Amino acid sequence: MSAQSARSAEYDLLVIGGGINGAGIARDAAGRGLKVLEVEMADLASATSGWSSKLIHGGLRYLEYYEFRLVREALEEREVLLNAAPHIVRPMRFVLPHDRTMRPVWMIRIGLWMYDHLGKRVSLPGSHTVPFPHIEYSAGLKPEIRSGIVYSDCRVDDARLTILTAMSARDKGATVLTRTRFAGAKRENGVWHAELEDVRTGARKAVTATAIVNAAGPWVSSVLEGVPHRATGAKVRLVKGSHIVVPKVHSLGHACILQNTDKRVIFVIPFEGKWSLIGTTDVPVATPEEAVDITEKETDYLIEASNRFLAKPISRADVVWTFAGVRPLYDDGKSDPSSITRDYVLELDDEGGKAPVLSLFGGKITTYRCLAESVLEKLAPFLPPMGPKWTKDAHLPGGDMPNYNAFRDEIFDRYKGFPRELLDGVVRRHGRRAGAVLGDAQRPDELGRNFGAGLTEREVDWLVAEEWAETADDILWRRTKCGLHMDAAQRKAFEEYMAGRKRA
Ligand SMILES: Cc1cc2nc3c(=O)[nH]c(=O)nc-3n(C[C@H](O)[C@H](O)[C@H](O)COP(=O)(O)OP(=O)(O)OC[C@H]3O[C@@H](n4cnc5c(N)ncnc54)[C@H](O)[C@@H]3O)c2cc1C
């Protein structure tokens, strides 16, 4: 239909947004041979995709809302993503402590039976009930809790998943521009003419594209305002979710899922070795800017919901870090923010079969790969001929390792005498590319300055050269979580180093 116009545009696809969905679509499209430009107005994963609960999960509670399609797809993606990036996606057991005030056990068991059987499970073990006290699964919980139900999901480093996906897009030929804002576009002769702004300098430039994907997450509506389109009535519902981080509530590897008196569930997840990540909340907001920080009310809610189950109660004084994000959900008209669909909806607008703009609403980190396939299927009639689906069995950068622990041991062996914390961090972040990051260093001091928490100048060079890092925050909180492990003086010293590096 429009192969002709495709050739008259610089890009086949302009993707707006450097969250997980934008990165996933750019990667898939580039790998099928399309000419792709992805623009992100801030840093990759600086919005919702960096502030999630960091789970690759089927979403047990979505079964109550009959979201079977979403749950099946999400369950299957657990194994796909485990295989694609075993360094940043790890299996995790979840314990649901049970008492009489909660949903009855038979109901939970039915839900978990479906959870075990809806999607294909290869490596993840199934669910079972355990009487408490239990040597492992009642750890950290009140002794009066009499039983628990154990099941499997995975955890993920959400920001790194996004960045590795963008790296894969670039490896396949996509151009990825960060700190570049999409400022608007118009259709001319069946082609999009888009205006982009470099937010560092204010400089503007124009590009042409056959199709636009609006993956701007919480900003999906404001991006649409800068693009002529027929109003379809599709709306985004912004629902804020916040987390707190506290010293770990037990020393084992499993997470807990706790049912609150309001029927919501919260997760208590092992986090970065020393801590537990607790979340989340569901608070409707009108704009993304309203959801930058957790409120005291949300902090108290999470503490109270945890303390119903924890043997050693937590308090505000235990909170070492907090963060908040906004879910860009598809507005299905439901009033309760917890019951709004978590599934994704794709809205397409075109002009006489040309210059389509596809906007996406909702979605999960877990399902980003499938979402990208659906987007390309929908846009295919407007685009030049492209290759078949390819991402299901493909690795993300650094993910081509059959056995994570064996590979880590190889790195420990190769870099004998280097601090374990340093090597462990590099393997967790870069997987098979750890050797490329550390290079031929024979001694730790050959890695340059050590900023603390296992972060060295050598890795910073890699993050700047290969992963679009520009500021201290890009490195301390997104490409790594070293910021959490450093003290205030170390963070300040690193900020000064990055500022000096920028000036140089
Ligand atoms: C509290 C919370 C917990 C969650 N937990 C989970 C979980 O455990 N597991 C799971 O699977 N999902 C989870 N989710 C859902 C998941 O995080 C989101 O569905 C997903 O991150 C959305 O990604 P996105 O790419 O659509 O949006 P974003 O990540 O928000 O990306 C959109 C990007 O577009 C950019 N942008 C906007 N306007 C422009 C413009 N004009 N020009 C250029 N760039 C622009 C923004 O800067 C932003 O980076 C959670 C969400 C929240 C809020």
Fraction of residues in β-strands: 25-35%
Based on CA inertia axes, which overall geometry fits?
Answer: globular
Structural class: alpha+beta
* Small ligands present: flavin-adenine dinucleotide
If classified by CATH, what would the architecture of the largest domain be? 3-Layer(bba) Sandwich
- Termini distance? 50 Å
Under CATH at level 1, the class of the largest domain stands as Alpha Beta
Residues in helices, as a percent range: 25-40%
Explained architecture:
Strands 3, 4, 5, 6, 11, 12, 13, 14, 15 and 16 form a ten-stranded mixed sheet that branches. Strands 1, 2, 7, 8, 9, 10, 17 and 18 form an eight-stranded mixed sheet that branches. The chain has a two-stranded antiparallel ribbon with strand order 19-20. The chain is built from 15 helices and 20 strands. The protein has three domains: 3-47 and 160-235 and 342-393, 3-Layer(bba) Sandwich (FAD/NAD(P)-binding domain), CATH 3.50.50; 88-154 and 237-330, 2-Layer Sandwich (D-Amino Acid Oxidase, Chain A, domain 2), CATH 3.30.9.10; 404-503, Orthogonal Bundle (Helicase, Ruva Protein, domain 3), CATH 1.10.8. Residues 1-6 have low confidence and may be disordered. Helices cover 31% and strands 26% of the residues. It is of the alpha+beta class. Helix 2 crosses helix 8 and helix 9 crosses helix 10 (420-430). The longest helix is centred in the N-terminal third of the chain and has 17 residues, at 68-84. It binds flavin-adenine dinucleotide. Flavin-adenine dinucleotide binds at residues 16-22, 39-42, 46-49, 51-55, 57, 181-182, 215-219, 223, 241, 280, 325-328, 363-366.
